[in-house]
Amino acid sequence: MSIFDSHEITPEALFSARRQFLKLGAGALVSASALSNLMASMPLDKALRYVPSTNPHGLVLNTLEQASNYVNFYEFSTDKEAPVKLSAKMKTSPWDVDFLGEIEKKEMLEVDELISLFGLEERIYRFRCVEGWSMVVPWIGFPLSKLVDYLQPNSKAKYVKFTTRYDPSMFPDQSKGIFASIKYPYVEGLRMDEAMNPLSFIAVGMYGKRLLPQNGAPIRLVVPWKYGFKSIKSIDNIEFVEEEPKNTWQVQNPKEYGFYANVNPSVDHPRWTQAKERVLGKFGKQNTLSFNGYEKEVGHLYAGMDLRKFF
Amino acid sequence: MIWMGVIIAFLPLAWVGYGLENAIDPIKSLYSVSGMSAIILLLLSLLPSTCKRLCGYNLLRYRRPLGLLAFCYALLHILVFIILDAEGDIAFVVRESLKKPFVFIGMSAFLILLGMAFTSTKRLFKRFAKYHQAVYGAVILAVTHAFWAQKVAGIFEYMLVFSAIIFLSERLIFRMKNL
């Protein structure tokens, strides 16, 4: 793994964009049609411009190879690697996200519109799966709070409910009816104050590029202090509601998965311990931190709550 | 013939060992491969006597090697738990085994196989053969453990359950006929 300070390196996106620009200049000399051809061929993943993270927690990144080849995306398969191939042809652009419920601005916005509305920044976060593995990922996106502010929720909006797209032609497991591995569409939720916490993040990219399909393209949630299943992928709509939404894993197995799903080394999953974690790519294990290392930032949200009961 | 079988049975081990250096989640892949191999071999060890009863082929000489191979993989599975996952913390292993039903049934299945492996020599088998019926308990425990190990069971786990039901009910029917 490279240990350059991320500031010292020209991001791959910028580097390639520069080259593309030079090509464009040359192209202009040739003809206007050649120019438009080149623009059309400009890869989508080079288009991200963002403010790099200063990596305030000094985390060591996992590689893109690890983060993109070990995923849970049951809409494709329950296998960790199979979604990579199964999602290769997933059409992620254009992609409209619907905003519903107790808000002023009920509208539908395309992912690129959201990007131009809120700008992009990088966040280097720990990611801890309820299964006991973890990684560190540089996400690119915008704070969820910016989106919530823009949508202007009313006083009835107590929770935010996220739903993954339901499209059996896109997601093979959704077309299996009663033989599907879980109930679809996948649903997740946050309490309003959780959604407004500065750490809650909407990602459209990682490692300098657009999200790969298997990582939840084109737009997903990232809530770093909660188990990974809260960070819902390929979002179809976001609804502001009064009642606590029933999230998919809680419906699937209420004894094992709750609404909150905060990373907590002292509350075990009924089948396995949560005290330690396997960092992807490593043989050894490391201690899991309370709220995944973000206790200072989010601990106050749960003051006075029995975290054994609200797991 | 038996040796070729043994070599084939160790192929999964070679495969996981070869890929281990670049494995994204090495402990998990060791767990999966050792567990799946153990349970498949354990189910296969039920085949020879069924086969003899149903189609008359005598494959009984393969029963012991299959059982021992299943035991080897189960042992590897337990070692991954103790050495890699629990990092040698025996107190933790004991605590988890007693506290978590999922670990408890897996550990129980292993202890049955351990006893059977110890008494599988010709001399000891004569004395302990009747206790080897405990293998049915081990099969039920191991299949439940495998089923439970997943967040949601997939086709592999359903196939395990299906094969276990076939093998066990064939024996039940055979015994009822011969009462």
What does it look like?
- The complex is a heterodimer of chains A (311) and B (179).
- Chain A has helices at residues 12-30, 32-41, 64-68, 82-86, 111-118, 144-151, 192-196, 248-252, 295-298, and strands spanning 96-101, 108-110, 121-128, 133-143, 159-164, 187-191, 201-206, 209-210, 220-222, 235-241, 276-279, 285-287.
- By secondary structure, chain A is of the alpha+beta class.
- Chain A folds into two domains: 1-42; 49-302, Oxidoreductase, molybdopterin-binding domain (Sulfite Oxidase, Chain A, domain 2, Alpha-Beta Complex), CATH 3.90.420.
- In chain A, the strands form two sheets. In chain A, strands 3, 4, 7, 8, 9, 11 and 12 form a seven-stranded mixed β-sheet that branches. In chain A, strands 2-1-10-5-6 form a five-stranded mixed β-sheet.
- Chain B is mainly α.
- Chain B has one domain (2-177).
- In chain B, 79% of the residues lie in helices and 0% in strands.
- The longest helix of chain B is centred in the middle third of the chain and has 23 residues, at 63-85.
- Chain B is globular, with a radius of gyration of 17 Å.
- At the A-B interface, loops of A face helix 3 and helix 7 of B.
Search tags:
heterodimer; A: 311 residues; alpha+beta; 2 domains; 7-stranded mixed beta sheet; 5-stranded mixed beta sheet; 22% helix; B: mainly alpha
Helix content percent band of chain B: over 70%
**Percentage of residues in strands of chain B:** under 5%
| Count of runs of 4 or more consecutive helical residues of chain A | 9
Secondary-structure arrangement, i.e. CATH architecture of the largest domain in chain A: Alpha-Beta Complex
Shape of chain B: globular
Cα-atom radius of gyration of chain A: 20 Å
Q: What radius of gyration of chain B results from the CA coordinates?
A: 17 Å
What fold name stands as the CATH topology of the largest domain in chain A? Sulfite Oxidase, Chain A, domain 2
Mind summarizing the main beta sheet of chain B? none
Largest interface: A-B, 23 and 20 residues
Helices and strands of chain B, in order, run as: HHHHHHHHHH
Q: State the helix count of chain B.
A: 10
CATH class of the largest domain in chain A, please? Alpha Beta
User: How many separate domains make up the residues of chain A?
Assistant: 2
**Low-pLDDT residue intervals, each spanning 5 or more residues of chain B:** none
Please state roughly what percent of the residues of chain A sit in beta strands, choosing from under 5%, 5-15%, 15-25%, 25-35%, 35-45% or over 45%.
15-25%
Assigned CATH superfamily of the largest domain in chain A: Oxidoreductase, molybdopterin-binding domain
**Mean of the pLDDT scores of chain A?**
90
* Approximate helicity band of chain A: 10-25%
